[in-house]
């Protein structure tokens, strides 16, 4: 159809359920908006990468209390000691040591288990993975509600926002 009010139709759908597209949203405007959104997402990921890099190299152990007990637990694991000592030692904390076990399992084979920067990098990667998974699940749930099917490997829209908590 050459009419400006043409509609796109899926041959498997009833023609009465077709959505107007061209007269509502011209193709060149769609392309400009898509390019602008891709550029915006690219800039957001660049800012995210910069912030994550800066957080990895920042000396958190001098400013944040939780990194010292984390590394103390890593030293205990390196010496095959229990991460939960008696109260008289005052070197245990109440959080579960799952993250320490994961870091130790990943970094011990390469000898970086006592390097605070490597432990930070593993923690950030785990945090980004959790953010991606949470955003992907949210995106899929919204897609189910909306009836659309999101792309399989595309980063979900909420990933950048979710990863800000890392």
Question: Can you walk me through this structure?
Answer:
There is one protein chain. The chain is mostly helical and 166 residues long. It has a domain of 57 residues. It is built from 6 helices and 2 strands, in the order E-E-H-H-H-H-H-H. A two-stranded antiparallel sheet has the order 1-2. Helix 3 crosses helix 4. The chain is elongated and about 70 Å long.
User: In which range does the helix fraction lie?
Assistant: 55-70%
What spatial order of strands do you see in the largest sheet?
1-2
* General form: elongated
Sheet having the most strands: 2 strands, antiparallel
In total, how many beta strands?
2
Distance between the termini: 51 Å
What order do the helices and strands follow?
EEHHHHHH
Number of helices: 6
Content-based structural category: mainly alpha
The Cα radius of gyration reads 25 Å
Q: Stretches where pLDDT falls below 50 for ≥5 residues?
A: none
Percentage of β-strand residues: under 5%
> Can you give the mean pLDDT?
75
Characteristic terms for this protein:
mainly alpha, two-stranded antiparallel sheet, 6 helices, 2 strands
Give the secondary structure arrangement, pairings included.
Blueprint: E1 7-8, E2 19-20, H1 27-57, H2 60-63, H3 67-78, H4 98-107, H5 116-146, H6 159-162
Antiparallel strand pairs: 1-2
Helix pairs in contact: 1-5, 3-4, 4-5
